[in-house]
Specification:
The protein is α+β, with helices and mostly antiparallel strands and about 140 residues long. The chain has three helices and seven strands, in the order αββαβββββα. The protein has one domain: Immunoglobulin-like (Sandwich), CATH 2.60.40.4400. It is globular, with a radius of gyration of 17 Å.
Length: about 140
């Protein structure tokens, strides 16, 4: 019986660790000099229109918090072209993120992993709304 409980407990811990995740610590704000927000209509980084450059420590930390706390969406991803592309500019090259944004919802995708979608948390949506207001 003890073995059964141990196996069950270990299995639950393993399942919890392998379940839906987030982009936890994917972005370190200390490694970023600026964040560029581009309007786009595709996944190929073409037809980009610069909307805003965020270069204050406060804005960079806010963007990092939004990205790092986004929750993975379970299931297959078949989604329309993104509204925005987010470029993280720093000493090291990083892949951009795609952003879908509306008043009702907001989602992210790492351009290096287009099979996984992340939903921005409620707190993240509030912060994102404030940042997007800056871009006019």
């Amino acid at each position: 019986m003890k073995t059964y409980r141990f196996c069950l407990g270990a299995g639950l811990l393993f399942a919890a660790g392998c379940g839906s995740g987030n982009l936890n610590n994917a972005v370190n704000p200390d490694d970023i000099d600026e964040i560029r927000l581009y309007a786009t209509d595709n996944f190929q980084s073409e037809n980009l229109e610069l909307q805003q450059v965020y270069d204050t420590n406060e804005d960079i930390a806010a963007w990092a918090g939004i990205i790092n706390s986004a929750d993975q969406v379970d299931g297959m991803v078949d989604i329309a072209a993104p509204d925005y592309e987010i470029a993280l500019i720093g000493e090291e090259d990083t892949d951009p993120y795609f952003l879908w944004y509306s008043e009702d919802s907001a989602s992210l995708m790492d351009s290096a992993d287009t099979h996984t979608l992340y939903s921005i948390t409620e707190d993240g949506k509030e912060t994102l709304s404030e940042l997007m207001e800056e871009s006019g």
